[in-house]
Design a protein that fits this description.
Blueprint lengths: L2 E7 L3 H12 L8 E5 L6 H6 L5 E4 L6 H9 L6 E6 L2 E3 L3 H11 L3 E10 L5 E3 L2 E3 L5 E3 L6 H4 L4 E2 L7 E5 L22 H11 L3 E12 L9 H9 L3 H18 L2 H4 L3 H16 L3 H8 L2 H16 L1
Parallel strand pairs: 1-2, 1-4, 2-3, 6-12
Antiparallel strand pairs: 4-11, 5-12, 6-7, 6-11, 8-9, 10-12
Helix pairs in contact: 8-11, 8-12
Length: 308
């Protein structure tokens, strides 16, 4: 069983060197290391051009995280593929721990590593769970590793910062290497993939022995108010994707018979959250009204998921 790596990068020059160093230091080595660059303008592309042992796919425009990840995966003929952000570093022994896990649990379709912040002791994600309002929640987020001591086992979904995909497990439901829904552009695409796997009966597991470090929340403290502030600080276009992808996810996965008890929590959370993200910029509402074709496609994908 072999493993390749796909890194999605956008203006990530400050992180790429350490990221690639950690990938190239693995034993056993990755079969291929592919970086898909979403039209960076910070010098990342020039650095990649001079990096031996790395295959660079330099895109002419920013096609989003989901489509870029699919583009990289399509180049991989290995059974296992690590899909990762550019701001992660693999701990020593990552690839060996992945192969050990797959040796014990060959039916694992998605493997969620233990993702720590750069301090090495604060948890960023120990896999994702689904809340009562049908939102993703990173297990252990912002807590000291010593306090939660996460155990290996099944989880609902995976954090997109670093995900191991077993391509063989998805052979019956994924066409043309489109693991991630490209209508999402970015945000929620990891939760959607995990939910799809769960509905299809594909095992999603977490293993604390498989570890990476992630910069995303290196300076972000835990707390609901701080996370709200972070979301509101995003540019309007990114806030639009946060809201749009929430409803694409519901259009694909909400089932009345299974989730009707969740409706009050869904409505209350969405009234609050959607209101906060949209009220400061009317353009977001206009963009949402124009996303009808994507919602229609989500409904078609819903039927495809149900068929499996």
């Amino acid at each position: 069983m072999d493993i390749s790596a796909v890194v999605v990068s956008f203006n990530s020059r400050n992180f790429l060197a350490d990221n690639l160093d950690s990938l190239q230091a693995q034993s056993p080595p990755f079969s291929r290391i592919i970086v898909v660059d979403n039209h960076s303008t910070d010098g990342s592309r020039e650095m990649l051009a001079n990096r031996p042992g790395v295959e660079a796919i330099l895109l002419d425009s920013n096609i989003g995280y989901a489509a870029a990840a699919n583009t990289g995966i399509a180049r991989c003929d290995s059974q296992l593929v690590l899909v990762a952000n550019a701001d992660i570093r693999l701990e020593t022994g990552f690839s060996r721990a992945v192969l050990n896990h797959m040796g014990r649990y060959p039916d694992t379709g998605l493997l969620s590593p233990l993702i720590l912040r750069f301090d090495g002791v604060t948890v960023d994600s120990a896999g994702q769970e689904c809340t009562s309002a049908l939102y993703p929640r990173e297990r252990g987020y912002g807590k000291p590793l010593s306090r939660i001591n996460p155990r290996a086992g099944k989880v609902f979904s995976v954090c997109g910062a670093a995900t191991v995909i077993n391509q063989r497990a998805f052979a019956a439901i994924v066409k043309d290497h489109r693991y991630y829904d490209e209508d999402f552009f970015m945000f929620w695409e990891d939760f959607d993939l995990g939910w799809t796997a769960t509905e299809a009966g594909i095992c999603v597991r977490f293993d604390p022995d498989v570890r990476v470090l992630h910069f995303r929340s290196a300076t972000l403290k835990a707390g609901f108010r701080r996370r709200i502030a972070l979301s509101l600080a995003r540019p309007s276009r990114l806030r639009f994707h946060l809201v749009k992808n929430r409803y694409l996810t519901l259009a694909k996965h909400f089932r009345w018979r299974r989730h009707w008890r969740r409706i009050p929590a869904v409505i209350l959370r969405d009234l609050f959250w959607t209101g906060l993200l949209t009220i400061t910029d009317p353009r977001i509402i206009i963009w949402l009204l124009r996303s009808g074709p994507q919602l229609c496609r989500a409904r078609r994908k819903r039927r495809e998921i149900s068929d499996h």
